[in-house]
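Example 3.2
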Amino acid sequence: MAVANHVERRPPAKRTEAGVRADNAKPSGNGQKSDPAQPVGQALTSGNSDGTLERLRLRMMVLIRRFEERTFQEYTRPGQKIGGFCHLYSGQEAIAVGTAALFDKTRDYLINGYRCHGHSLALGMSPRVAMAELFGKATGCSKGKGGSMHLFQAEAGNNGGHGIVGGQIPLGVGMAFAQWYKKNGGVTFCFMGDGAVNQGTHNESLNLASLYKVPCIFVVENNGVAMGTQVERASAERDLAERGSGYNMPHRNVDGNDIDQVIYEFGQAVARGRAGEGPSYIVANTYRFRGHSMSDPQKYRKTSDGKWVPEFEAARRRDPMVIYERRLRDAGLLSDDQLEQIESEIAETIDQAVAQADADPHPALADRFNDVLAEQYPYEPKKD
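Structure, written as tokens:
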């Protein structure tokens, strides 16, 4: 699967094998590792699957990737349609789609940092609604007032992206506390980047979550770089799973590029939370193929002559879509025709989303103060 150029549309489907590391490879470090006996791909090898569910998961990963590619295009082309801060999710799709495979929209919550496009699409947000939000249109999920960092869909349990690093962590604990209090069996997925583990809210929230045994699943999407700062330059403990070791909860590394491992390991945390056994701390090790934001030239990933460092080339060979596509093909659950149909349908969906978003109206000027404060603006005290 071609990922080197994220803007050009993918060439005809070809099976990619060369240079791909074993699918069940584990991240290095001192934290608790994935169980080596875990049933990675069990549904594929047991003969109990016709591949429908697995192809839907691959389709969602492809949708997220193509959505992000188009977002990049619309942000950078002449006549720029998308403005403001924008953080793309390319390369981390297995984490969002694996989470969605376990998510119960009737009782679960998800709260996120600002790299939130992938999670929102995985939980069912329409590409048309998401793209309208990026275009700043009134038909967007936040009425065009939030943009890239604030995709939000409460009815699906998606409590939004948050622009303050680490600001979402205590909010996630509060949501999990509500689930614990109501005893409804729900869990809260609280996502953060590797940079957020150095915020004070991280320490306070994990400690409180464990004291109250709330059903919060803390997920660090460790793509190795907090903005432009590598983990080893910012964290004295390089194994980020160990950063969760002082709070009396399970803490472990997971291969965030392998959707089957994500589903299995996250599933253990979900079961623990639903059973009232308290929170879990998971570091999903992955890699983002784009810069931190649209203004990031990724110089920290290039040599002095402008070439990509070996680390980047190795990461491309472990693209989560490459891993899963290969696994489905090996199990006889995916053909070239099926993959091309997926690509064709997604291309049409995204083209329609962009065209509609472009045609949709901007928020009315009269609505500029709506949805900002709980009180009416300008604020007028209630009269007896």
